[in-house]
Design a protein that fits this description.
By secondary structure, this protein is an alpha+beta fold. About 55% of the residues lie in helices and about 15% in strands. It has five helices and three strands, in the order αβαααββα. The chain has a three-stranded antiparallel sheet with strand order 1-2-3. The mean pLDDT is about 85.
């Protein structure tokens, strides 16, 4: 049993009560482009270290792309989807026994 299997029903119920127009779904490859932009934008905007280092969206997209690939493969992600099918939110989890090994600029640090 992974995190998604028990958190998805809880989030679904919460969304039905608080935001009836939003559906919670397992993160799938079809969601990746929008999820990638959302995660990259939010991280770049809100993460103090990102701002301090002067990282741009293009600098962090490769990391989040790799992260999303692994999260999708492991079934450890959830998305909130609006009425028109747009991704409104993303929740990712990490399997500490099968951690992501990033490849690229951010991994070399």
């Amino acid at each position: 049993m992974n995190t998604t299997s028990w958190i998805l029903p809880i989030l679904t119920l919460l969304m039905k009560v608080r935001n009836p127009g939003v559906r919670v779904r397992p993160l799938q490859p079809i969601h990746k482009p929008e999820a990638l932009e959302l995660l990259s934008q939010e991280f770049c905007t809100r993460e103090p270290l990102c701002r301090t280092l002067g990282l741009a969206l293009g600098d962090i997209r490769p990391f989040f792309s790799q992260l999303l690939d692994q999260v999708i493969d492991q079934g450890l992600g959830v998305v909130a989807v609006g009425r028109q099918g747009q991704v409104l939110g993303v929740l990712t989890n990490e399997d500490h026994f099968d951690r992501m090994e990033p490849i690229g600029v951010l991994a070399e640090g």
